[in-house]
Amino acid sequence: MNRFVIAAAAIVMTAPLAMAGPIDTACVRSDRARGNAPLCGCIQQVANQTLSRSDQRQAARFFRDPHRAQEVRTSKRDADNAFWARYRNFAAQSERLCR
Question: Hey, what's the signal peptide range on this chain (predicted)?
Answer without folding.
Answer: 1-20
